Amino acid sequence: MAKVIQSIRGMHDILPDQSASWLHLENTIRELFTQYGYRELRTPVLESTDLFCRSIGEVTDIVEKEMYTFDDRNGDSLTLRPECTASCVRAGIQHGLMYNQQQRIWYIGPMFRHERPQKGRYRQFYQAGIETFGIAGPDIDAEVIAISARLWKRLGLKNVELQINSLGSSEARAKYRDVLVAYFEQHEALLDEDSKRRMKTNPLRVLDSKNPAMQEMIEAAPQLLNHLDEESQIHFDRLKELLEEMEIDYVVNPRLVRGLDYYCRSVFEWVTTELGTQGTICAGGRYDGLVEQLGGKPNTGLGFAMGLERILLLLEEQGIETPDFAPNIYVVTQGSDAEKAGLKITENLRDALPNLRITNNCGGGSFKAQMKRADKSGATYAIILGDNELTEKVVSLKPLRLKSEQSQVSFDDLASHLATIDFDGE
């Protein structure tokens, strides 16, 4: 017997019983982003390794430890994308999307990181996000945050907190870096090995450490908010005003630095305490220097990414039911003539009522077996068609989820009758 081949560790199948929740979430995201005037951009999952080294930073954990990188037959170094912002910028530069014009785009799809799989964190995972280019003011920062806030409302999510911070300009951050390094050098005995290495390459990342033994020292470290340049301070103050005007609650978290090198000025995260240590479900910020860093003309950028697995986990944790997309109608037929007529009737119904979900019984079976399939499908009603119904040109309409009587409806009146039924309400 041949060995059973299984999926790669940390890369999971999404089974039919799970996919309805995914579809609901993805449809909600697509509808919301489109309503705000954003357009979809689809990029390849495979990119040049240099793209991520130049954008994310060579001394980040993602580049150092987590990327799926290999050389192809031509000797080129390729990487499965660990995130999508760099890919969106690359596409914008390559195709001239962002020159002398504003761009509002969104994406959705799989990302890849070779890290330890755990609940809500996988080696192939899915993200949806927004990227904007060519808009420098804090009004777009507020809009992007408002989109994410509205998504939680539409999904019914509760107990998510918005945390914001400003990283200032690159010049202000360079001066702050010197102050921070001096502070860490005074407390070097408290630093773990990873933080000692980061202190020399990217000291702001030390602030992001989750090491419990270092938290008191980190809390006492100088704050970047006290070292902002004037323009960044004005930008951040205006962002807070706009959020307050829209009645979006926020908390200023001076330790929020984000894990990627390209961020500047506004950064934010939506966090929850209901998913353990993996509490961030959406994060983003401004990256005004990234376009130029990747070879384009100077331009502003801002966006966010959200982990779909974590959002689905939170929906489940909060007991929020999502549509199961079960069929509205399951068609049961008896005999070859009824089977033939049933196919024609259902195709006509799909023409007349395109939103109706109809499943035809296939593969034959007794009446009892077909009714079992109908019930197992989750359908609201069964349409029953046999010799008697064919003779009288009617169908029997049997409720499967309601305590009401079976009725008969003529072929001619069937579409109009079904149009009066609120399947979703039932």
Automatic annotation (TrEMBL):
* Keywords for the protein's UniProt record, in alphabetical order: Aminoacyl-tRNA synthetase, ATP-binding, Cytoplasm, Ligase, Nucleotide-binding, Protein biosynthesis
Q: Which SUPFAM superfamilies match?
A: Class II aaRS ABD-related (SSF52954), Class II aaRS and biotin synthetases (SSF55681)
Q: Which GO terms describe its molecular function?
A: ATP binding; histidine-tRNA ligase activity
The kind of enzyme this is, by top-level EC class, is ligase
Per the UniProt record, which EC number(s) apply here? 6.1.1.21
Q: Which residues form the Aminoacyl-transfer RNA synthetases class-II family profile domain?
A: 25-327
Q: Which GO terms describe its biological process?
A: histidyl-tRNA aminoacylation
The residues listed in the UniProt record as binding L-histidine, with positions renumbered to this chain, are E83, C84, T85, R113, Q127, E131, R258, Y262, Y263
For this record, an example GO cellular component is: cytoplasm
Recorded catalytic reaction(s): these are:
tRNA(His) + L-histidine + ATP = L-histidyl-tRNA(His) + AMP + diphosphate + H(+)
Task: Tell me yes or no: is Protein biosynthesis among this UniProt entry's keywords.
Answer: yes
Q: List the Pfam families.
A: HGTP_anticodon (PF03129), tRNA-synt_His (PF13393)
Where on the tree of life does the source sit, at the highest rank? Bacteria
Q: What is its main location?
A: cytoplasm
The keyword Transport is annotated on this UniProt entry: no
Q: What Gene3D superfamilies does UniProt report for this protein, alphabetically?
A: Anticodon-binding domain (3.40.50.800), Bira Bifunctional Protein, Domain 2 (3.30.930.10)
Provide the protein's localization.
Cytoplasm
Subunit comment: Homodimer.
What is stated as this protein's family in its record?
Belongs to the class-II aminoacyl-tRNA synthetase family.
> In its UniProt entry, what is this protein called?
Histidine--tRNA ligase
